[in-house]
Amino acid sequence: MDFEESFINARDFDNLVKVEQAQEVKETTTTTPPPVTNKRGRKPGKKSSDKVDIRAKLERSRQSARECRARKKLRYQYLEELVTDREKAVIALRQELDKYRTWCVEVDEGRIPEGLPGLLDELGAVKQESAGGVLIM
Question: I want to staple 106 with a disulfide (CB 3.0 to 4.6 A). Which of 24, 111, 125, 127 is the partner?
Fold first, then answer.
């Protein structure tokens, strides 16, 4: 046998590798999975280290529950403050609306309500400023 004949050429080697890979895939797909047991409860052979793991897991669960309750409490406090602020704003706006309604009644009766001239002066100043800005050439 010649030295060069002892080596497999590259094409034959690639074909051999492909055949082996195909056989491996076929073997892995044809094997049956391990049987599934429907046994419930504790498994035999549990060690004390498993109990430590279970205790650590339970402690982490308790800590997580405490943190969740604290976050929930903070969120409710935030929402309650938000609702309180909005209620105060609604009350202030209703009072302002009532004031304007009474002013309308007084104007309809021919009287000038207190605070109306000041409000008109304020609005007039704002209008003059905005009008002054528009008329500048």
Answer: 111
Token pair in block for residue 121:
């002066």
Percentages helix, strand, coil for the chain (3-state, rounded to 5) are 75, 0, 25
Give the predicted TM-score (pTM) of the model. 0.46
Summarised one tens digit per residue, pLDDT across range 37-91 is: 677 776 666 666 677 789 999 999 999 999 999 999 999 999 999 999 999 999 9
Residues in contact with 115: Cβ distance below 8 Å, sequence separation at least 6, in sequence order: 99, 103
Distance between CA atoms of 34 and 131, rounded to whole angstroms?
87
